[in-house]
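Usage example:
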Amino acid sequence: MALDDTRLRDLLTQSHDLHSDAMETTRVALDEYVELAHDEPLHDDSWADVDPVTRRTTLLRGLPKSGVLAAAGLGTAMVALLASPAFANKTMDVQMLQTAASIENLAIATYDTALTLDFIGGASANAVVKAFVQKTKEQHQQHAEAFNAAVTRLGGKAQDQPDPVLLGVVNNAKPSLTGPAQVVDLAIELEDGAAQTYVANTGTYSNKNARIVTASIMGVEAQHVAILNAVKALLAGGAADLIALPPDAAKLPAAAGSVGFPNAFYPTTDARPANEGAMQ
Amino acid sequence: MRRSRKQQIAISEAELVGMTNDLEDAHHETLPSMRESLVEWSDSNEDIRTGITRLVSTASSRRAFLFGGGAVLGGVALAGSGLGNGLAAAATRSGLAVPAAVPGQKLTGDLAVVALAASLENLAVATYQAGIDAATKGSLGEVPPAVVTFAQTAQSQHKDHAAAWNGVLTGAGKKAVSGVDLTVKKSVDKAFAQVKDVPGLAMLALDLENSAAATYLSAIGVVKSPAGIKTAATIQPVEMQHAAILNFVLGEYPVPDAFAKTTGARSVKDKVG
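Running the assembly step on the lines above writes:
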C-alpha cells in the first residue's frame, strides 16, 4: 500500500498544532458563556432572536405525528408544554447541547469498538483508515467536552451517556460489522446524523455562544462524512489501495472527486430530536 | 479538460457513478428545505431591514467580523505566468460580470453580509472556471479525472450557494450581486498567476473554501435573521467538505481541526463589484 507512515505522523502532528489554533474560537465562545450565564438569569426569555416557527419546528422534531403516542394525546400535550414560555428558555438550549454530547459519546464508543476489530485497528487494517478512526475519535472527545462545558456553563448537568436511540442502532449493527465497509457505513450514519442535528440546532439556539460552539463543530462532522463517503466508494469499488496519504490522484476514479459531498446545502431531514439525548 | 491517461484502477466506474447519482438525488431532496428557509427570510424582510442596527450583538463579535479578514491567500507571491489574466475572462464566461457593479445599492446589516456571501460564492465560481479553462488548455499538465469532477461539482454547488444568497437579496427588493469580492480577488489574481499545476490550483481552491467557511462561521455569530443563520448553517459544512477533499488530494490530513476556525473570515468591509 502506498503509505508513508512518517508523512502521516507529521500530518497528525501538524493537525494537532492547527487544532490548538482552532480551539481558540471555541474557547472564546465558551468564555463568553460565563458572562452570559451571569447576565441572563434562567427565567429570562432568551428566545428573542429566534423566531417561534423555528423553535416550534425544532422542538417538535421527532415527535410522533401518528401512532400510539399521538393517539394517546401526548403529542398535543407536548406541543402545549413546549410552546409555553416557561419551557422556552435556556432549558431548550441545555437539552440540545446534552443531546449533542450524547451523540458525541456514542461516536467515541463506536470508534472505540471499531478499533478493536482487526480490520480497523489491528494488523490487517488499512493504516490510513486506522489513523483516521483514531484521530476522529479524538476529535469527538473534544466535541463532547466542548458541548458538556457549554451545558454546565448554562446551568445544566454534563451528559456522559450515549444517545439512547442511536445506541440501539449501533447495537443492532454490531453483529454485522464483518468488514471495513460495514464499519464505514455505520460511521457515516452517525457522523451524518450528528452533522444534520448540529446544522438544524444552529438555527434554533437562543444563546449565541451555544450556537457558535455548535456551528464550529457541524462542519467538522460534515468533513468526516465527506472522507468516509470517499472511502466507502473506494472500498465498494475494490480500490482500498487508493486509500492513502498522499493518494495517487491520477488513479482515482472520476466519481471519487464528487462522491464525498453530494449536497449543495447540508440537509437536516435526519436531524435527531432536540431532546433525544437530554438528561431526564 | 484534458484527463490523465494513467487510469490503472481496479474499480467499477459504473458503480461509483451509480452511487453519485443516488447522492445527486439526495441533493435535490435537500433543496425544498433550503427554499423554505429562503422564503422565510424573504417574508421577514422588514425584520432584516429594521434589525440592521442590531446585526451584531457584542462589540467583540462585531470587531471580529468587520476586521477579521486578515491575510487570506497572503502566502502566495506575485508571478507572471499569465494565468491570472484568465480569471476575469473566466468570470465572464461563467456568467459573472467582472467588475459587476452594484450601482446605487448601499447594503448594511444582514443584507451586507448576504452580499458579501454572494460575492465570495461568485468568486469561487469564477476561480473554478478559470481552473477548468486552464486545464482544458493544457496549462496545468495532466489533470486526474477525479480532480475534474471535483472542480465541476464544487463549482456547481457554489453557483447554487450564490443563487441562494441572491434570492435573499432580490426577495428583499435589492439587486442581485453578480460581481465578486474584489478585495479577495486581488489575492486570487496574484495566486492564480503562479498556478502551473493541479496541486497549485488545489491550494488556491483550498484557501478560497477555507475563507468561505470561516466567513460563514463568523456570520452565524453576528447575523440577526434566524433564516439567515439557517442558510449559512446549511452552506458552511459544504464548503468544509470541499476543503476536506482538497486536503486529501493534496496529501494533507483531510480533517485537520476538531473545531472550524474563523481565521481568514472576510469582512463586510470588502469591496464588492
